[in-house]
Design goal:
Strand content: 15-25%
Bound molecules: adenosine-5'-diphosphate, magnesium ion
Structural class: alpha/beta
Number of helices: 25
CATH superfamily of the largest domain: P-loop containing nucleotide triphosphate hydrolases
CATH architecture of the largest domain: 3-Layer(aba) Sandwich
Length: 714
């Protein structure tokens, strides 16, 4: 492929533009290799003019940046401790502020009265006086050119994500040089789209985001760059979607009197209408010559697994195999058991569902590998061990991924490569995904939703136990637990930590509840005498975890004290109570998932969310949100709002995080939707981007970055 010469400007190595020392420091600190990498290191914020003048009104506990002159300097030794204290007073003509440095008396050589500089730090109050302790600063040195000094006085000052070795000012200076050296930059966003939305050219946007003359300039620049980011991301996803659909695969059709028909005939319930709808979508997809790529979202217990098994049976009818990928060994084990239970003894014997995980003993592992490669086993269930080189299939027709958020695009891709022809892919998730997130993270998938739960669920009641206000209610929690057990039911107690930990300095509130400490407490609790109480957590060997889960499912254990290993998929109908300790330490969707472990059978579920968080805190708001509704979609939206920022995309969801710089999924839904529509137009008319070389280059850069990111993690 020949690249437009213009788009190469961003691919120039940093080392050929900056001095080697700075280039290497940037690579070490942020992984920047090219000019394009560096230029997309955008300022985190800009110091505003207003902050610079009103020294007297500086808010405490806030990070401020101030341009001011050094007024006076004094040094004294401290009274109680060894060492010296350097006190510097700065002024901007309207007010003054004290800076303090401990044991850094050398600074008096540079902080001499009359020097002007920019000072940044957190304002603290000491003896009723505002001060900055150990601020970052940069002095305008005498030889700095007049233009720069003038800029400092009027232009917004960019502040960059920085490290101790590479300060924001170093970065700013390097940025100035990089921009001076920058050749022509072609626009990844086609002209007509830019015109429609009133966007700047890419080059202009890069200049203004780093060196704005006023606030409106950086705001416009960021708007352009944010859209560009969304546009390139959507173009990449839609191109991938197009690519996945461009290879033919084997259609998978059930046969009369085959496995699927026998399964349906024996199913003890009828599918809900949502299930029927989604089952129809899946059946159509896999009966086609283009590979399916479908995400099915539905609450825990909404009946996704049944649909996945039906798809596996249609594949088996056509002579193929299916692989089910689970996030943990516990879940893989549980999936295998529930598949065997659903299939019943005859179909199980014929289809030979097999488990393949990292911890299988060698002999069993050999047997499982053989069954997989020979095609004898039509259903292979496993963890990421299935991705390993040793595993191969006879005819892999379908990949089912359970709980997508632990498996990224890269893992799906690795498994896809194990099939001769591209397999159909079905992704299941119990985490409801807001539309904008689905578009961003799963833009290459079609989405089906199961909204209704099968009838006959008794429901779940949720309560917050607010220990900050009602410390004594903790006794009531264990009392209630003992009452529930007295009815012959079982319970989970979930803790954020495994081991107790000493409270460390700077910790807020008491240390997190731990499995070890709570297990000990409950075993000794008078209300729970004679109950079987066991601990389950990720550090146990997997056969031990498996044994415990099985014993719990069989009713031999009354209470499981656990970490979130029990989060997903665990299915014990007799478990009716879920107690989450320090619930504020969990995310909204995690709490919702945990709650979904109970109330699954005919028994009403009870979920107690125990927290020490104060009533206005963010943690408490999350807990309150979960207690207030059972609707997972509502919660997903609330969650997105509570997070404000873009950590919606876990890095292993798609590798997308590294490439999302200005785009915030929580906030930029409209931008994403526009970008998807407009990028769709380009992909439809020019799927290889042959007539859009700059877009092709931007997509390639994005993939490179993702790849680097992925390699760094493995
Ligand atoms: P999910 O995978 O979405 O959590 P499952 O497929 O495991 O849900 O279903 C949860 C439970 O409900 C299983 O015991 C399953 O057999 C049962 N189930 C599924 N669909 C129905 C239905 N339409 N009517 C009654 N029970 C159902
Ligand atoms: Mg399931």
């Amino acid at each position: 492929m020949t690249l437009d010469s213009d788009s190469d400007a961003l691919d120039v190595r940093l080392r050929s533009v900056l001095d080697p020392k700075t280039a290497d420091a940037l690579k070490r600190a942020f992984g920047h290799e090219t000019l394009g990498d560096f230029l997309s290191h955008y300022p985190r914020r800009y110091a505003r003019r207003g902050e610079l003048t009103v020294l007297a009104d500086l808010p405490t506990d806030e990070n401020v940046t101030i341009v001011a002159d050094v007024a006076s300097v004094s040094e004294r030794s401290m009274q109680k401790r060894r060492g010296s204290l350097l006190e510097v007073t700065i002024t901007d003509g309207t007010g003054s502020l004290k800076l303090t440095f401990f044991n850094q008396s050398w600074r008096k050589n540079e902080l001499v009265p009359g020097k002007r500089g920019v000072f940044a730090g957190k304002v603290t109050l000491y003896r009723n006086e505002r001060q900055l302790t150990h601020p970052e600063y940069k002095l305008f040195d005498d030889e700095a050119d007049a233009e720069e000094i003038a800029r400092w006085a009027t232009a917004p000052i960019p502040f960059y994500p920085a490290t101790a070795a590479l300060t924001s000012w170093n970065i700013e200076k390097a940025m100035r040089i990089a921009l001076q050296q920058l050749g022509g930059v072609a626009d990844p966003v086609p002209d007509e789209v830019r015109a429609e939305l009133g966007l700047l050219s890419h080059r202009r946007a890069l200049e203004l985001v780093h060196r704005p003359d006023d606030d409106s300039e950086w705001a416009r620049a960021r708007r352009t760059l944010r859209f560009t980011e969304a546009f390139v991301l959507q173009a990449a996803l839609l191109q991938e979607r197009h690519r996945l659909r461009s290879h033919m695969t084997a259609p998978r059709l059930p046969v009369p009197g085959g496995y699927l028909e026998r399964f349906d005939a024996a199913l003890p319930f009828t599918l809900t209408s949502d299930q029927q709808q989604v089952a129809g979508e899946i059946a159509n997809d896999i009966a086609a010559v283009l590979p399916m790529n479908r995400l099915v979202q539905g609450e825990v217990g909404s009946g996704k697994t049944v649909l996945a098994v039906r798809a596996m049976l249609a594949v088996a009818d056509s002579g193929g195999q299916s692989a089910l990928l689970a996030p943990t060994e516990v879940l893989a084990g549980q999936h295998l058991r529930s598949i065997v239970a659903l299939l019943g003894p005859d179909l199980s014997a014929e289809l030979m569902p097999t488990i393949l995980t990292g911890s299988l003993p060698t002999a069993e592992r050999k047997r499982a590998l053989l069954r997989s490669v020979s095609g004898q086993s039509r259903i292979v269930v496993g963890t990421h061990a299935l991705l390993g080189d040793a595993v191969s299939f006879y005819d892999l027709g379908l990949i089912v991924v359970d709980e997508q958020h632990r498996f990224g695009v890269d893992q799906r891709e690795a498994l896809r490569l194990k099939a001769e022809q591209p397999p159909h892919v079905l992704v299941l998730t119990a985490t409801p995904i807001p539309r904008t997130v689905a578009m961003t993270v799963f833009g290459d998938l079609d989405v089906s939703t199961i909204a209704e739960l099968p009838a006959g669920r008794a429901g779940i009641e949720s309560f917050v136990v607010p220990l900050a206000e009602k410390p004594l209610w903790v006794n009531r929690v264990w009392q209630r637990l003992s009452e529930e057990l007295a009815l012959g039911r079982q319970a989970f107690v979930v803790c954020p930590a495994i081991e107790p930990r000493e409270a460390a300095e700077g910790d807020e509130g008491p240390p997190a509840a731990s499995v070890v400490a709570v297990l000990d407490e409950l075993r000794r609790h008078p209300a729970l005498t004679g109950r079987s109480i066991e601990a389950l957590h990720g550090r146990l060997p997997s056969d031990e975890k498996d044994r415990l889960m099985r014993a719990f499912a069989a009713g031999e254990i009354d209470v499981l004290v656990a970490t979130t290993v029990i989060e997903v998929g665990v299915d014990v109908p007799n478990a009716s109570m879920m107690i989450v300790l320090d619930a504020d330490r969990f995310g909204v969707s995690q709490l919702h998932q945990l709650r979904g472990r109970v109330g699954r059978g005919g028994l009403p579920g009870l979920c107690l969310l125990v927290t020490h968080a104060e009533s206005e805190s963010l943690g408490r708001q999350r807990v309150d949100a979960v207690a207030s509704t059972l609707d997972g979609f509502e919660l997903a939206e609330a969650d997105l709002e509570l997070r404000h920022e873009g950590d919606v995309l876990g890095s292993n969801q798609s590798g997308a995080r590294s490439s999302l710089k200005l785009l915030r999924v929580a906030r930029d839904g409209d931008v994403i939707a526009d970008a998807r529509r407009l990028a769709g137009g380009v992909v439809d008319s020019d799927p290889a981007f042959a007539r859009h070389p700059a877009l092709a280059a931007a997509v390639r850069r994005r993939l490179d970055e993702r790849e680097r990111d992925f390699l760094n993690k493995t």
